[in-house]
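Fold this complex.
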Amino acid sequence: MANGQARRVSIANDPRVRAFLYQGLLAAALIGLAWLAWRNAVANMQARGVPIGFGFWDETAGFDVNQSLIPYSALSTYGRAFWVGLLNTLLVGAVSILLATPLGFAVGLARLAPNWMLSRLALVYVELTRNTPLLLQLFFWYNAVLKTLPSPRQSINVAGVFFLNNRGLYLPRPTFYHGAGLVGAALAFAAALAVALAFAGRRRQAKTGERSQDLWTAATLIVGLPTVAYFAVGRPIGLEFAQLSGFNLRGGMEIHPEFAALTFGLVTYTAGFIAEIVRAGVQAVPRGQSEAAAALGLHRPLALRLVVAPQALRLITPPLTSQYLNIVKNSSLAVFVGYPDLVLVFAGTVLNQTHAAMQVMAVTMAVYLAISLVVSFALNLFDARNALKER
Amino acid sequence: MTAVAYVRVAPGPILPPPLARRGAIGWLRANLFSSWPSTGVTLLLLAFCLWTLPDLIAWATTRAVWRAPDGALCRAHQDGACWAFVADKLDYFRYGSYPQSERWRVDVVEGVGAVLIVWLLWPRAPRRGFGAILFFVVYPIVGFVLLRGVPSLGLPLVDTQLWGGIFVSLLTALVGIVFSLPLGVLLALGRRSRLPIVRAASVVFIEGVRGVPFIAVLYMAENMLPLFLPPGWIPDRFIPPLVGAALFAAAYLAEEVRGGLQTLPRGQYEGAMALGLSYWRLMGLVILPQALTLVIPGLVNNFIGLFKDTTLVSSVGMVDFLAAIDNGLKDAVWSGPTLLATGYAFAALFYFVFCYAMSRYSAAIERRLAPGRRQ
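Structure:
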């Protein structure tokens, strides 16, 4: 070496050599294992006559599903069945997230309410939902509640608008006639105008300190403009109600009991977790913050909205993200109630019919990973907007 | 001159707070009737409780059928639970179809497991290292020998087709812990490693598994594990779900352990390095004992999740506790309108007691380990 000193570390103890060696061994072991598994898999698949590629994608599926967002029949392809399952997963996930969030926030805030009765009941709800398996809750909703509803002839009838029976929930379906697009356009225009107003109001407040009073203007715009358009065009949107014909209800919008049970289960279960997240987030905001806000003269609702909520939200969003992902992942419990989601249709029926386990599982995993990435990314964006801005 | 005292020199008598502010009345006023809306909410909820609770309690106790030879009495009493059904099927719910004469083996495995878990989770227990070796190395072997049976030792073979009930739920959760904790620790260390290939492999595994649902992992284990084995090897029906559960739990435990590794002060690493400890001694003697103690609450919470998730193994044909109840509900001898609610209530009670106790334990440990109170 340059300073004449003998190299004291032997090669066997050189950290860089060791790092290289260990990683080489690990990589070799992993590659060897993968190669072995791949060779066995190919041999096994050939022995069982399983297709190796994705040729099955365009073959006729030959099975039917009971709920689909896109046209689908037994004559459709496996690829189409995949999309049916994926869309159903996304549908139940989105609806459950939309419903679980307000319920979870409500229960979480109820846990913090000064009223003892309210906070105790919220606690009972949280402990009950968090400490029993989701599957049990799902069975409860599906078998004990929805399946014991009366038959279609004895439907529970709410003012002739909603019907509830053991075949599902029936809502009025909006029907669109010629000119309905104009009402939609009016709504979009009003919304754009309201957003523009809000931006202008915020800029004015930043400049002059004057609080904007545009809320009523915006509300009038959003409600008024489409209403005017609706009557001007000649009432192009109507409602179609479900009606009893024979032994079943016809028409209207039908919500299947499988979908309803899965949604109820996911919503009530996840709301318990969201409630705990909300409670922890609000409690983590120091008392001094709301006291300081009160000292500045902000009344309580305003202090909550401007001071406490933004700080609590910063703590709430990361765990909330993982709850949203849990909803999407837990929607695979659809398998147990027969709701045709991605796992039931694709990783279940399609796999069993084609035996293409490798391809089907790889696609399924890739889809869930992609959903995870997209949801995380979206909420990270929201998070970054809320993050502390240090100057 | 006479002195006129305008200022009180002696303090007045200390009065108790007004009646309306103390004791039960004060508490009621502060917590239930502090304002008109609060009073309204209280009355509304009270009415709700009075409307539902007495009926529920009567359904579960006074109106319930406690003893009956078959479903006839339950069908006659439709306004009460049918606990006689649960009592009749209790053995099936606990052991599945495990042969009657061999059930002591299940009891022994469950009992030993419980003792070892208490040993490991009790923070002041002596010689926890020894307990860990027993739990993670000796126990799985003994458990396997006892449950499966080795004819040469006088233990007849019990086919896994006969396994079922609470025993299978506990087994799945235990296998999840016994195999996934060591694997999870390795993965956590791998993710914190400075070696890029080790880190990448750990990250891919952890994030890959955490991104997909448990059912998909079970389906994958069920369908793909047999494919990866050399032709002719057919694993026992129980192996794929258990492997799936262990791998699934390992990814979650790894993240939990990583959290513990990250909260440990740098000085601990630096001090151990200054003493000249090698990587494995540094981890094994200094870092992991502290980090694992720190994450006990998280590990217990994960275990609760895993225990609830074991209900999903019925999707690949294992008869866990919930599936055993579902099977029991189909028994024509007992079938009746009150059966479903009774079965689900029993299942809910079982899971609730189990999970609630564990969550209380985890919360207690968490308070003990809270930064303000740590010694």
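The longest strand of chain A covers residues 162-165.
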